[in-house]
Specification:
The complex is a heterodimer of chains A (about 170) and B (about 425).
Chain A: H1 4-15, H2 29-35, H3 46-55, E1 67-69, H4 83-93, H5 96-102, E2 143-145, H6 148-167
Parallel strand pairs in A: 1-2
Chain B: H1 12-52, H2 58-62, H3 64-69, H4 83-99, H5 102-110, H6 116-126, H7 135-142, H8 149-157, H9 165-170, E1 173-175, E2 181-183, H10 191-222, H11 225-240, H12 243-254, H13 259-266, H14 282-305, H15 311-318, H16 323-351, H17 355-360, H18 368-377, H19 382-406
Helix pairs in contact in B: 1-19, 4-6, 5-6, 10-11, 10-14, 10-16, 11-14, 12-14, 14-16, 15-16, 16-19, 18-19
The chains are: A mainly alpha (about 170), B mainly alpha (about 425).
Chain lengths: ~170, ~425
């Protein structure tokens, strides 16, 4: 994708499915489109798909093939008066147990390796959550981490190209 | 001639003037809160948007020395700027790096030439290596793109506080640093296509609401008041329902496994594989928006038709006109004010519509407002969003003036 030829190839691939794609903008759309039978395959945040499959019992299954994983971070505004308390909170919120606890409610993977063995059951459904984690070895055979540096430089340009492609 | 005096001896003229002034003042004070409200919530944001669409102050603010010095350089000389401009730039970039603003100016210039964002970011990281002259050679050593004419031409072109560049981008055109004006090739055009699509689809929606709304309004107007009032509730009820609810109901009706497709398939009119795609495309937008905007057509039409005396048509018929002729030549011309009001209302509402095209538009049914929202909240190119907004505002005003010329705005009646 760093070369013009690569971008051209990517768009040529997109051309082959252009008439059959529904592009989503909100995370809630893919589960809805799948449940309605409007699309037969889709990509979205795995936590939403888990809720759809496990909580709402929709006839949809998960395919863990080249998941794109994303990292979230905490930010403390510069000059914050409560920096010390905030740091204490961030330390608490990102410790091993807390990250594992997060999985009780939604199937998002803990960012710490040490949290993985502590992942337990879903708070209300009582299912073992470990096999539903994106970080589970069975699910993360092949993964893709967004190249943030690349996107920071190329996003505006590629975004314009993509929208021009959509408008054709 | 004797001057007229009031009871307390003041000339009548002066006294009257005083009374008038007091009245005027109190009238002004009464509307002052509303005026203030409009100025603060309507006029100031519009002016602010106008300013934002030409604002380029970020470049001279972050690179003050460079933008001042670069004016002495001729961008068409075919040679790189002199050492003193490079020196000014290195100083500016060092300071910007310290304030962490170098990425912002890079992002701004990236709109004009892709790749500048990364150039500013990576050069910012390495700039502290440059300690002494020659700055030119040192900067080019950091990144060879600083040795390219194009980079400096862009910096020269966008060194001023104001720029028309966002308007060029919003109309799929470009003013090159060489001064050459180009229209982008067809496969790179976005906004001109979306503006055109927005207007064509809005015109279609206006036409459809008129086609459907006219007979409904006519029926409501000629029915006895009691039944008419009852039926008008059927028009008002959807009008009062949240438009999000109405849009989502259309999704439930029109989608591939929705009510309409399921019914047609179960009746055997369609095969399982022949389900019609009626939503997530232009069709979906037209259907949903026609329904949502229908009351804005029916209500002005109804209010105008209600005032047309029934005796007009009766008189025409009794004088020998065919019922159709009586309708067309007597009744219809009297409804023009309502048609005009309804059409301009529906048209202006629909060219700025956002939520329905966003939800049901798919690729082919989104409007320019969706792109404006995208620039505001996702790509964060507010200058472009402002320029698109100003153009949209200009189009609305142009249609308003056109309407005024053809029909006359004083003839518009909303009820």
């Amino acid at each position: 994708m760093s070369t013009d030829a690569g971008i051209k190839q990517a768009f040529a691939k997109l051309d082959t499915i252009k008439d059959q794609v529904i592009w989503w903008t909100a995370g809630a759309q893919t589960p809805q489109l799948l449940a309605d039978g409007e699309v037969v395959v889709g990509s979205t945040y795995n936590g939403r798909l888990f809720s759809m499959i496990a909580e709402d019992n929709q006839p949809v299954a998960m395919l863990w093939d080249w998941q794109v994983f994303d990292l979230d971070g905490w930010v403390i505004p510069k000059g914050s008066k409560n920096k010390h308390e905030v740091l204490k909170f961030v330390q608490f919120a990102t410790d091993t147990q807390r990250l594992a606890d997060q999985a009780k409610y939604i199937s998002y993977g803990p960012a710490r390796n040490s949290s993985a063995p502590l992942v337990g059951k879903h708070a209300t459904l009582g299912i073992e959550m470990a096999p539903h984690m994106p970080t589970d070895p069975n699910n993360s055979k092949n993964t893709l981490l967004q190249n943030y540096n690349w996107w920071a430089d190329n996003r505006d340009d590629l975004d314009t190209k993509f929208n021009a492609w959509l408008a054709q | 001639m004797e001057q007229l005096l009031t009871a307390d001896g003041i000339p009548l003229k002066v006294s009257l003037k005083k009374a008038y002034r007091r009245e005027k003042l109190s009238a002004f004070l009464l509307v002052a809160p509303l005026l203030l409200f409009i100025v603060v919530t309507f006029l100031i944001p519009i002016v602010d948007m106008l300013m934002l669409s030409v604002d380029n102050s970020i470049v001279p603010e972050i690179l003050p020395r460079t933008t001042k010095n670069i004016q002495t350089w001729d961008p068409h000389s075919g040679e790189l700027p002199g050492e003193e401009i490079f020196e000014a730039f290195v100083k500016d970039l060092k300071e910007a790096k310290k304030n962490r603003t170098h990425t912002r100016v890079g992002q701004r210039l990236n709109y004009e030439s892709s790749g500048l964002s990364s150039l500013f970011r990576s050069s910012g990281r390495k700039i502290k290596r440059i300690r002494r002259a020659p700055f030119k050679a040192a900067l080019i050593k950091i990144d060879k793109r600083w040795g390219e004419l194009k980079t400096w031409q862009i910096l020269h072109q966008f060194s001023t506080s104001y720029t028309p560049a966002y308007y060029f981008a919003a109309t799929d055109t470009k003013l090159k640093s060489s001064g050459e004006f180009v229209i982008l090739p067809d496969e790179e055009r976005i906004y001109s296509k979306l503006f055109l699509r927005t207007m064509l689809m809005s015109a279609l929606i206006t036409g459809l609401t008129l086609l459907i709304g006219f007979p409904v309004a006519y029926l409501l107007a000629i029915l006895p008041t009691k039944i008419g009032n009852l039926l008008i509730i059927l028009v008002l009820l959807p009008f009062w329902t949240s438009l999000l609810v109405r849009t989502c109901s259309w999704i439930a009706l029109l989608q591939q496994h929705g009510v309409i497709n399921d019914t047609l398939v179960s009746l055997g009119l369609l095969g399982e594989d022949e389900r019609i795609a009626m939503i997530h495309n232009a069709t979906g937008t037209v259907i949903a928006m026609t329904h949502i905007l229908l009351p804005f057509m029916i209500l002005p039409l109804y209010s105008v038709m209600k005032t047309i005396p029934k005796s007009f048509v009766r008189a025409a018929v009794s004088l020998g006109a065919h019922p159709w002729e009586a309708f067309w030549k007597v009744y219809f011309p009297n409804t023009v004010a309502g048609i005009g009001a309804g059409s301009i209302l529906v048209f202006i509402l629909s060219i700025g519509y956002y939520i329905t095209p966003e939800l049901v538009g798919g690729n082919t049914g989104t409007f320019i407002s969706n792109r404006i929202a995208y620039s505001i909240s996702i790509s964060l190119n507010w200058g472009l969003a402002a320029a698109l907004g100003v153009i949209l505002l200009g189009i609305v005003i142009a249609f308003y003036i056109l309407y005024d010329r053809i029909v006359g705005i004083d003839k518009m009646r909303l009820g």
